[in-house]
Amino acid sequence: MAKKLFIKTYGCQMNVYDSARMAELLAPLGYAPTEDAGEADMVILNTCHIREKASDKVFSELGRLRADRRERGAENVIVAVAGCVAQAEGAEIIRRAPDVDIVLGPQTYHRLPEMVARATRARDAKTRFSRVTSEGMPRGAGLLDTEFPAESKFDFLPVTQDSPVSAFLAIQEGCDKFCTFCVVPYTRGAEFSRPVARIVDEARALVAAGAREITLLGQNVNAYHGEAPNGAAGGSTWPLARLIRELADRVPDLARIRYTTSHPRDMDDDLIAAHGDVPQLMPFLHLPVQSGSDRVLETMNRQHGVDLYRRIVDRLRAARPDLAFSSDFIVGFPGETAQDFEATMTLVREIEFAMAYSFKYSPRPGTPAAMMESPVPEAEQDARLQELQALLNAQQQAFNRAALGRVLPVLLEKPGRRDGQLVGKTPHAQAVHIEASPGQIGAVVEARITDLGRFSLRGDIETPPAQRAPRAMEACA
Ligand code: SAH
Ligand code: SF4
Ligand code: F3S
């Protein structure tokens, strides 16, 4: 009987990608995915360290899982903690949660099968549990692997056999920017780009396995500079724009390409031009700005000012007039004055975002900003966040309202919550609920937007006039 693997994923899309790869790595060991932690033989928490709350969740989830295992008498469940909290606090996890079997970082998960085999052997030999914790759980010596190994995990990953319609593909990882608030350069390590040929192979495998849309992922994706394919002209490394053009030209049936997350400083001329001339590249860009104040951007070490951001947005809009933007904002960064915050509000009013994420600054141990003076009082942070979110929500609603009544190409991705309904996405990444049959999953249909929900749209498939008659006749016959 297949063993069951439950993976809970926190944080960014890179973690979603990594979780899918971990599931693929464990399939040969007989683990099949489950959505129900209560029936799992192995649990992986793929964690995020970006803000304090994100990492706190890990310890509370471990507590919940422990209680669940005790209740169902399933002490043999293997528990692994992966991802960025594992990387940053691996030893602490082993100390605080002695029932965790495996702790592994984002760059060592290709070693998971070996670690699971070791953990399983240890259990079977009953050598692992010489003592029991005060809560009656076995206490063992968890395996810890949070190196940054010389080999690349990407060289050890199996070929994808099954893909969602909208798939992620990691092309770049790590970050050398060192924004003063951010843990990513420490948890993911130095910037690294995968070779073009490997990415094209993976894109083809994803499409063969059912993908129609691929989102190219990287913590700093537009800093991509991957080894050029053998014999290719134009230098030894290719930038992101060149990779996008290659995918658009060489991967038939790849209907849509997106990329995330970009840094404003790395938006080069060719990438801006690609938005104008690669039809598969979708007109939606996540371009975090964090703040509208030059002074704050400087202390954040973002390495650009507000004007550069404005200029890039203008140039992108000139290349592709229907391009819509999303962004990330941090409010209450140390030293942020009411005036600085007002500058952020002004920038938001000026750019008009289609959607955005906004966060209260959260000090992260070991980052330079955690030692900065003049913290903004929590009540003030809350007030600013509320004000910013009200504006961003209003902009998002206005953006969605503008779609009402229009006919848009929607990529149908998966079943919706109700029977007979599918969920798809517009070019601007808005979710649309549509009455359609499961056989249409993977198709791009023309849909008229009929209704607005809080977070999604509703639409009806527009039947082109030429097709109406034969369909009706078929139905009669
Ligand atoms: N690679 C992405 C960032 C990933 S983190 C980039 O460079 O844009 C996603 C977002 O989390 C960041 O854009 C930032 O807005 C937010 N964030 C990161 N560290 C934070 C912190 N210490 N406190 C609050 N928000 C933070
Ligand atoms: Fe973090 Fe800045 Fe790198 Fe983004 S660019 S991952 S915010 S250090
Ligand atoms: Fe979180 Fe790590 Fe992603 S800290 S946002 S999971 S890179």
TrEMBL record:
**HAMAP family according to UniProt:** tRNA_metthiotr_MiaB
What catalytic reaction does the record list? N(6)-dimethylallyladenosine(37) in tRNA + (sulfur carrier)-SH + AH2 + 2 S-adenosyl-L-methionine = 2-methylsulfanyl-N(6)-dimethylallyladenosine(37) in tRNA + (sulfur carrier)-H + 5'-deoxyadenosine + L-methionine + A + S-adenosyl-L-homocysteine + 2 H(+)
Give the chief site where it resides. Answer: cytoplasm
Q: What EC number(s) does this enzyme carry? A: 2.8.4.3
- Name the positions where [4Fe-4S] cluster 1 binds: 12, 48, 84
Keyword S-adenosyl-L-methionine attributed:
yes
- Summary of the function given for this chain in its UniProt record: Catalyzes the methylthiolation of N6-(dimethylallyl)adenosine (i(6)A), leading to the formation of 2-methylthio-N6-(dimethylallyl)adenosine (ms(2)i(6)A) at position 37 in tRNAs that read codons beginning with uridine.
Q: What class of enzyme is it?
A: transferase
PROSITE patterns according to UniProt: MTTASE_N, MTTASE_RADICAL, RADICAL_SAM, TRAM
Q: Name one GO molecular function term.
A: tRNA-2-methylthio-N(6)-dimethylallyladenosine(37) synthase activity
Instruction: Alphabetically list the UniProt keywords.
Output: 4Fe-4S, Cytoplasm, Iron, Iron-sulfur, Metal-binding, S-adenosyl-L-methionine, Transferase, tRNA processing
**Which cofactor does the UniProt annotation name?**
[4Fe-4S] cluster
Note the InterPro entries from the entry: Elp3/MiaA/NifB-like_rSAM (IPR006638), Methylthiotransferase (IPR005839), Methylthiotransferase_CS (IPR020612), Methylthiotransferase_N (IPR013848), Methylthiotransferase_N_sf (IPR038135), MiaB_methiolase (IPR006463), rSAM (IPR007197), rSAM_horseshoe (IPR023404)
The residues that hold [4Fe-4S] cluster 2 are: 175, 179, 182
This chain belongs to the protein called: tRNA-2-methylthio-N(6)-dimethylallyladenosine synthase
Q: Which family is it part of?
A: Belongs to the methylthiotransferase family. MiaB subfamily.
